[in-house]
Structures are given as structure tokens and as C-alpha cells.
């Protein structure tokens, strides 16, 4: 047995041992980090049911879904009319950004309304800037809201934290620090008035 | 690989500011160790490994465990529920829990082997007396950590085991009542007990990290004993820790993992020894299980406790059985270290090992009169072993000890 | 050498006797019957679930088993419809709980029926014990314990639970079916006591295989490296 053979066998074994050790270490990390992902029961609390008929006309309600705040608004005919005429103010009028948070129920017909039934808007109430809950300022213009809204205010939401603005379909308005429209989520109507979110 | 890292600029930057290279070389890579160490010397590094496993798994369990004895449904409590949640809902929670439960027993298996090595080869003798003493401190803290930890699932064994042991402390004169109340936080084991035991269970292993550091430091000053028990004076009798003992320890780790993973994946309850059957029943303070026994690694001391009629004497003797371990280096005055060259001591030590196993068996079983008698005999020998060591060296004819290895 | 052998012998004896004592029956009653169960057998576990919901849930809960779990565990894998039927008004994330209140249970039976989520783990003998218990109802040979409450396998023989499968009244042709029901429900209970057990053993096979390889490589490496040393 020459020195050389010893060395090459030794090196091979070191390499093999190191390789196996690395595999073992990587495999060992998986369950620990994995355990920090949401547990099965946390994930199971993923659907919320709500009766939209309890929301009066023109009223805004905030409910919870997956621990997040959700707006349910009952938009009147008047308010629905306010969705037109300001397309150039919107960053993402067709809700094309972030496919993951748009919803499969979104069609070309309801794109303006961003809801299955035009009168009931259901969106995640976290400002897409840094997460505050925006304030509801539905009437157009500055009569009610003064300087806090721009001159051509179409009605919608105004976030108190850093001033982001959204229209009555929660579409983000140019000039806002928020990059995206308020997020949509999957939901469907179990009956005429009961919606299942999630 | 370590060499490549140590040659980098980054390492050089750190080394200039910490002296890391010198430390790594003197304590690990170029640390001299006897060349004749056998596999009984692997258990120290294995103990360190298991300590790390316990702390790691413990931290992740603590992300989900809730130390509350409040009732949730029927006889289930928030604490018991949280453990079941870990087992069922948390991703890989079942694995982490089983690793922790099996790891607790593995820790004691490894440490008992490590202590056995120390006894047999005289590793507690001059100049390693303090090393041994620190080791006994480690054993005591381990027992404390295990005791606190066992309460946490809040099963029947958890609750009643804690009740019995805290009552033990009550037997001590003068300070007993106070100690009991401070441990329990109430009139009986309950929610306050659970919460503080959780806190202490988290603390003790972290204390261990520091004390193990001291243990290793004390070792590195006097250097390892060896199976022959002789002082090594010649250079060629020693070899560098790296690569010889790093590789040998790695091999030992792999063999250990084989046994450990068998239990974790195929038999985590280990027939009721690692996770006791009664602990799957939620704690009920109005009903004691038919058969209470402490977990296997505490059973020898339980037998010693039960060997005495008087409650106080039982507690005192149990304490004495641990305290006497501290005295060992000073009781055994033989100049010869290793049992290889001490024929009388060798038989005594083997008998001592058998005795501890017998004590364990008695502690685990229901106390019949026969077993009680056997337990008492074993207890007698347990103490006799240490006391005999005061006189044995005077007449023991030791075999001639070799000059070198 | 002789004492070392003695040590090993005593150690082995101790280990053997330790494990023996763990398999015996719970309270020293009759030796248990062996249950033919397979926790990977979906058909058996589903049959067991049916026995559980039809018979046991009249008094017992299994609160750690959620209705959603019945859909999610591959070993049960119920459809959404089947689960909706089982759960009625209860939310799908709720555990399976009996309608029998503890107060009513105490007045009717004298004891609150224990939750069965962990019963197989909580009794010595496990699934064998549950199976034996279910088919162990007899008439008291000493005539002291009333009919339906004497069980051959229960510690002390007086069990508060009255013969749930009506084993006592069965005639010869019912035997096979009742035995099957008892085994099936034991399989279900054995599964739910530790729902990840199959995954655990599967991963375990890979881990053991890997470790055998690792032991081999490290052993050869150790031998190779130690060739330098005269030992």
C-alpha cells in the first residue's frame, strides 16, 4: 500500500463523510424551519361566512378573515355612478397587478366594480403601503372632507398613515405611496345574502 | 474544511480581535490526547451532542407549548392540548416532540455510560477531582431539568410525580415547608407550579451550557485520563485531537444516531419507558394512577428513598446517595487509577454497576416485600461501595502499572 | 472477564423483564386477545370510524380529531359531503364531541366517559386492550356484578360502560361481525391516537438507511485515518 493510495482513499472517505454530513444537516433543518410555518389548525381557520344583508345602504362594515380586516360596503346607485370618469387617476384600473391576490371571479364585466355583486364590495382593508386601515370617505368632492382629499375626489378611502387614496372600488389613485389596489380575495355567495370568504 | 476557513481574510480579521485561531488550535485541532483511548471515551462528546439536540428541539417546542393548567374540554387542559396540537397540527411537530422525549432518555443513557467510564478508569482521581465534581453538578442539574420538564405535558404521571417529589422536600426539617411552598407556588401542585417549572426547565439546560463549558475547560487543563490510568509523559504517547478523535467521535455520533433514530421513528414510547402510558391520561388531582414510578433514569434514587421506613430518613439517604458522589475522589485513596490494575476494585465496580441496575429495576416495579428487601440490600451495597473505598486501597494488591503505552 | 459477563447478563435480563412487564394486561386481568389491525388500511379505518360515530359517540368524544382531519388524513380521506353529513351543525374545524353532557353521563353511568382521542396510547396493551375489552363482556361467575357491567379484561372486572357492541346478547352468527367491528374500531382508535405514525415510519426507513451508510463511511474513515497511529 503506497502513500498515494492511502491518500486518495482517505480523501474520498473525507469527501463522502462530508457530503453525507451536509445532507444530514440540510435534512435536519427542514423539520425545524417547517415547524415554524403555520400549523394545520391555523390554516384551517381560512374561511369566514357573512350575511351581507346586514349591511345598510351606503354603510361600511369591517369584519375579520384569517386574522385580517375586511371591508364589506353596500354601495348605493349614487356611489356606483362615482366609479366612472376618473380612469386617468388610477394606477391599476383593471386590477392586473399581483395575480395572486386577484380572484378567479373577476371578469371584464365586473372589473369596474371589483365584486361579484356590484353593490357589495368585499376587499382586504389593509392599505397596500404599510397595512393601516384606510378611512371611509364615500362622498365625492371636498364638501365633507375639506383639504384631506384632492379637488377631484371621486369618493372612496383615504389612509390616515401616509395619505394613500383609493376610489369606491378600492382602486389606488395616482400619487399615493401605496402601490396596489386594496387586495381582493376568493369568495362566493352560498345563498343570495350569505357570502363565504376564503 | 476548517483549515480553508482559517486561511480566509475574514477569519484573520476576527482572529486578530479575538485570538480565535489560537483557541481553536489549542483546544480542538492541535489539542493533545492520549492515543490509547477506547470507545468508552466517546460518551462525553455524545453527551454534548444530546444537550444541543435537547436545547434545539426544546426551543422549537416552546414556540407552541402553553404552560397553563386551565381546563379546556372535559379533563383536558390548555397545556395538554398544546402538546397534542404539536403532535397533530404543527408541521413536523410530532418529530420534534419525539426527538425531545427520546433525547431526554438518551441524555441519561449517555451520561450514565460516561460516569461509568469515570468510575472504572479512576478518572475522578488526582488531578481530576474538580472535573469529577463539576460532572456531579451537571448530573444534578440534568435531574432537575428532567424533573421540571416531565411536569409540562400535564399528564397523570407528570402531576403525581411532581406531587410526590415536592412532598419529599416537605419532609426536610426547618426549611421543608418553605421549600415546598416555593416550589409549588400554592397548596398543591397546580397552575403556578406548571408555569414556574416551565421557566426553570428552560433555564437549567442553558445553565448546563455554561457548566459544561467549565467541565471541558477543567478537562483541558489536566488533560484526559486513559484506559491504563497512567500519566503520559512521552510525546509519542499523545496524538492530536484532530483528525483522530474528531473522526472517531464522528463515527461514534453516527452509531449513536442509529440507536436514537430507531427509537424516535419506530418506538418513541419505548414500551412505556420514554413516554409513560399513564401520561397520555390528562392530569387528575382527585385520582392517583394505580402504579406511580418515576421515569427510568430516576428509579435508582427512588428505590433508595423507599428503602427506609422513616420518610425523613428516606429523603436524607436519597440526598446522601447523590452527595456521596462528590466525596468519591477523597474517599478512594488508591494511587492506582484504572480498574485494569486493581483486581479488588474492579469486582467492586462491576458489582456497583449491577447494583444500580437492580436499584433501577426495584424503583420501577410495584413495591412487593421481596423487591423491597432486594432494594434494601442494593442500597446497602451502594453506600458500602463508597465507604469500603476508604479501606480497600490499604490492603488491595494492585497489579504492576505499565510505564507507558 | 467473568464479572463483565455477569454484568451483561444482568443487564440483558433487566431489559427483557422491563419490556415483558410493559406488554402484560393493564391490571393483571386475563391475557389480552391480539387485534388484527393495520393502520395503513383505509378501508378498516373507515369502518372503524363508522363504528365510532354510530356507537361510541353516543357517550364518548374524540375531541382532538377534527371533522376537517377526517378529510385531510390520507388514511381516512373522507369527501367533503361525507364530512358535512357527519358534522351536522358543527363547524368543520371542531373536534368530534359527543352530545352526552358530563352531568347526564354521571347520573346514568356513574362516571364520565373518557375522551377516546388517545385511549390506545393511554392503556397498557393498546389496541389489543380495546379489542379485548369490547368483546370481553361476560356474566359475572360470582353473580355479584350486574349483567353488562362485568368485563373479563377490565381491572377489578366492574366496568361502568355497559356492553356497547351488545356482545353479551350476540348469537353465533353475529360473532364474526362483532369481532370485526371491535377490531375495526380498535384500528380507528389506534390511528387517531398518533395520526402521523405512518409518515413517521416511512421517513424512519429512509433515515435508518441513510445512517447505515453514514456509519459505514465514517467507520472506514476512522480506520483509514488511524492507520497513522501505532495502537
Characterise this structure.
The complex is a heterotrimer of chains A (198), B (405) and C (231). With 198 residues, chain A is α+β, with helices and mostly antiparallel strands. Chain A folds into two domains: 3-37; 44-197, Rieske Iron-sulfur Protein (3-layer Sandwich). Chain A has helices spanning 3-35, 40-44, 77-81, and strands at 48-51, 60-65, 68-74, 120-124, 135-137, 156-158, 165-167, 187-189, 194-197. Chain A has a three-stranded antiparallel sheet with strand order 1-9-8, with no helix packed on it. A three-stranded antiparallel sheet of chain A has the order 2-3-4, with no helix packed on it. In chain A, strands 5-6-7 form a three-stranded antiparallel sheet, with no helix packed on it. The N and C termini of chain A lie far apart (70 Å). The model of chain B has no long low-confidence stretch (mean pLDDT 96). The radius of gyration of chain B is 23 Å and the shape is globular. Chain B is mainly alpha-helical and 405 residues long. In chain B, 65% of the residues lie in helices and 3% in strands. In chain B, the strands form two sheets. A two-stranded antiparallel ribbon of chain B has the order 1-4. Chain B has a two-stranded antiparallel ribbon with strand order 2-3. Chain C has two domains: 27-195, Cytochrome c-like domain (Cytochrome Bc1 Complex, Chain D, domain 2, Orthogonal Bundle), CATH 1.10.760.10; 202-231. Chain C has nine helices and two strands, in the order ααβααβααααα. In chain C, strands 1-2 form a two-stranded antiparallel ribbon. Chain C is extended, with a radius of gyration of 24 Å. In chain C, 35% of the residues are buried. The interface between B and C is large, with 50 and 55 residues.
The count of domains of chain A is 2
CATH topology of the largest domain in chain A: Rieske Iron-sulfur Protein
CATH architecture group name of the largest domain in chain C: Orthogonal Bundle
How many whole angstroms does the radius of gyration of chain C measure? 24 Å
* CATH homologous group name of the largest domain in chain A: Rieske [2Fe-2S] iron-sulphur domain
Mean pLDDT of chain A: 89
Q: How many H/I helical runs of chain A?
A: 3
Number of E-type strands of chain A: 9
Amino acid at each position: 500500500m503506497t502513500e498515494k493510495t492511502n491518500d486518495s482513499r482517505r480523501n474520498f472517505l473525507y469527501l463522502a463523510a462530508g457530503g453525507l454530513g451536509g445532507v444530514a444537516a440540510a435534512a435536519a433543518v427542514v423539520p425545524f424551519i417547517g415547524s415554524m410555518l403555520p400549523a394545520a389548525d391555523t390554516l384551517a381557520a381560512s374561511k369566514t361566512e357573512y350575511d351581507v344583508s346586514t349591511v345598510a345602504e351606503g354603510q361600511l362594515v369591517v369584519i375579520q378573515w384569517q386574522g385580517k380586516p375586511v371591508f364589506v360596503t353596500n354601495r348605493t346607485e349614487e356611489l356606483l355612478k362615482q366609479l366612472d370618469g376618473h380612469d386617468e387617476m388610477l394606477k391599476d384600473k383593471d386590477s392586473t397587478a399581483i395575480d395572486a391576490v386577484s380572484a378567479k371571479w373577476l371578469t371584464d364585466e365586473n372589473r369596474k366594480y371589483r365584486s361579484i355583486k356590484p353593490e357589495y364590495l368585499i376587499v382586504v382593508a389593509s392599505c397596500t403601503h404599510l397595512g393601516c386601515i384606510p378611512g371611509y370617505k364615500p362622498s365625492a368632492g371636498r364638501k365633507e372632507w375639506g383639504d384631506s382629499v384632492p379637488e377631484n375626489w371621486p369618493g372612496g378611502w383615504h389612509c390616515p398613515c401616509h395619505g394613500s387614496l383609493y376610489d369606491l372600488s378600492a382602486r389606488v389613485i395616482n400619487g399615493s405611496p401605496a402601490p396596489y389596489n386594496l387586495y381582493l380575495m376568493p369568495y362566493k355567495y352560498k345563498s343570495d345574502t350569505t357570502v363565504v370568504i376564503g | 474544511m476548517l483549515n480553508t476557513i482559517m486561511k480566509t481574510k475574514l477569519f484573520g480579521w476576527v482572529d486578530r480581535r479575538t485570538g480565535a485561531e489560537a483557541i481553536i488550535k489549542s483546544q480542538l485541532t492541535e489539542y493533545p490526547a492520549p492515543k490509547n483511548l477506547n470507545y468508552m471515551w466517546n460518551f462525553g462528546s455524545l453527551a454534548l451532542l444530546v444537550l444541543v439536540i435537547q436545547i434545539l428541539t426544546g426551543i422549537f417546542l416552546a414556540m407552541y407549548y402553553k404552560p397553563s393548567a386551565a381546563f379546556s374540554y372535559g379533563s383536558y387542559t390548555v397545556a395538554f392540548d398544546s402538546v397534542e396540537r404539536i403532535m397533530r397540527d404543527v408541521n413536523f411537530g410530532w418529530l420534534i416532540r419525539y426527538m425531545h422525549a427520546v433525547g431526554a432518555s438518551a441524555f441519561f443513557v449517555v451520561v450514565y455510560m460516561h460516569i461509568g467510564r469515570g468510575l472504572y478508569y479512576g478518572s475522578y482521581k488526582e488531578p481530576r477531582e474538580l472535573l469529577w465534581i463539576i460532572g456531579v453538578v451537571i448530573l444534578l442539574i440534568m435531574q432537575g431539568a428532567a424533573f421540571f420538564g416531565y411536569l409540562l405535558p400535564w399528564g397523570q404521571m407528570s402531576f403525581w410525580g411532581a406531587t410526590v417529589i415536592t412532598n419529599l422536600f416537605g419532609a426536610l426539617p426547618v426549611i421543608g415547608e418553605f421549600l415546598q411552598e416555593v416550589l409549588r407556588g400554592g397548596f398543591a401542585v397546580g397552575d403556578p407550579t406548571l408555569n414556574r417549572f416551565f421557566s426553570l426547565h428552560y433555564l437549567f439546560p442553558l445553565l448546563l451550557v455554561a457548566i459544561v463549558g467549565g467541565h471541558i475547560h477543567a478537562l483541558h487543563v489536566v488533560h484526559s485520563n486513559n484506559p491504563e490510568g497512567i500519566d503520559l509523559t512521552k510525546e509519542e504517547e499523545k496524538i492530536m485531537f484532530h483528525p483522530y478523535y474528531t473522526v472517531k467521535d464522528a463515527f461514534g455520533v453516527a452509531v449513536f444516531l442509529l440507536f436514537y433514530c430507531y427509537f424516535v421513528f419506530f418506538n418513541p414510547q419505548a414500551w412505556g419507558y420514554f413516554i409513560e402510558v399513564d401520561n397520555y391520561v390528562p392530569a387528575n388531582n382527585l385520582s392517583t394512577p394505580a402504579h406511580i414510578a418515576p421515569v427510568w433514569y430516576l428509579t435508582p434514587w427512588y428505590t433508595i428513598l423507599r428503602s427506609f421506613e422513616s420518610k425523613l430518613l428516606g429523603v436524607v439517604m436519597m440526598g446522601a446517595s447523590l452527595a456521596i458522589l462528590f466525596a468519591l475522589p477523597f474517599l478512594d485513596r488508591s494511587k492506582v487509577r484504572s480498574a485494569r490494575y486493581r483486581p479488588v476494585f474492579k469486582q467492586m465496580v462491576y458489582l456497583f454497576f449491577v447494583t444500580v441496575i437492580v436499584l433501577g429495576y426495584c424503583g420501577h416495579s410495584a413495591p412487593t416485600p421481596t423487591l423491597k428487601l432486594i432494594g434494601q440490600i442494593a442500597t446497602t451495597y451502594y453506600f458500602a461501595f463508597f465507604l469500603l473505598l476508604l479501606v480497600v486501597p490499604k490492603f488491595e494488591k494492585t497489579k504492576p502499572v505499565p510505564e507507558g503505552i | 472477564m467473568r464479572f463483565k459477563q455477569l454484568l451483561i447478563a444482568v443487564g440483558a435480563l433487566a431489559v427483557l423483564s422491563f419490556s415483558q412487564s410493559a406488554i402484560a394486561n393493564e391490571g393483571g386481568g386475563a391475557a389480552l386477545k391480539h387485534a388484527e389491525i393495520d393502520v395503513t388500511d383505509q378501508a378498516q379505518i373507515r369502518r372503524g370510524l363508522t363504528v365510532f360515530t354510530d356507537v361510541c359517540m353516543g357517550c364518548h368524544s374524540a375531541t382532538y380529531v377534527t371533522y376537517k382531519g377526517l378529510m385531510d388524513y390520507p388514511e381516512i380521506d373522507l369527501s367533503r359531503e361525507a364530512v358535512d353529513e357527519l358534522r351536522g351543525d358543527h363547524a368543520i374545524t371542531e373536534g368530534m364531541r359527543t352530545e352526552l353532557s358530563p352531568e347526564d353521563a354521571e347520573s346514568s353511568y356513574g362516571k364520565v366517559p373518557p375522551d377516546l382521542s388517545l385511549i390506545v396510547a393511554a392503556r397498557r396493551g393498546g389496541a389489543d386492550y380495546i379489542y379485548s375489552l369490547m368483546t370481553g363482556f361476560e356474566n359475572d361467575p360470582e353473580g355479584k356484578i350486574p349483567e353488562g357491567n362485568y368485563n373479563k379484561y377490565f381491572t377489578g372486572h366492574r366496568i361502568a360502560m355497559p356492553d356497547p357492541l351488545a356482545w353479551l346478547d350476540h348469537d353465533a352468527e353475529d360473532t364474526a361481525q362483532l369481532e370485526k367491528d371491535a377490531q375495526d374500531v380498535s384500528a380507528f382508535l389506534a390511528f387517531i391516537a398518533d395520526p402521523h405514525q405512518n409518515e413517521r415510519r416511512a421517513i424512519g426507513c429512509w433515515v435508518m438507511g441513510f445512517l447505515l451508510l453514514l456509519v459505514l463511511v465514517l467507520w472506514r474513515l476512522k480506520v483509514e485515518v488511524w492507520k497513522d497511529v501505532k495502537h
